[in-house]
Write the structure tokens for this entry.
Amino acid sequence: MSPVNKVKKKIRRGYGAKRSLVNTIARERIQVLLEHARTRAREDDKRLARRYVELAGKISMRTKVRIPREDKRFICKNCMMPLIPGRNARVRLTSRKMNVTITCLSCQSIKRFPYSREKKLHKTVNPYMTRPSAVKEFQ
Ligand SMILES: [Zn+2]
């Protein structure tokens, strides 16, 4: 590697000690951008909504800050639209495969998330959710 490249790389990264500061700012900006994207999607401005999601993704990639799982579930991987249930997304439970299915209504792509683990957890930890009779045992 030539010396010029080395210097450039150092400048470009330059995060070292400022890492946590970068993280907080990035997290904040991702949140704001996603919020804007959702409002745009509600107003049916698809172009801007996609753009905001794209920018949030770019910040996330450059700073290695993850987009929170709850937010990521409601972004269409295929067309980058923020998904709003009842507006541009359909959310269904499939009982046989135990999936939450989110369908993007702009491009018809489907996301699936299994809920079998949650179901198991509820059975062992929280009897309220699965057996109403268990409520009596707790009182
Ligand atoms: Zn889509």
Observations:
- The chain has seven helices and three strands.
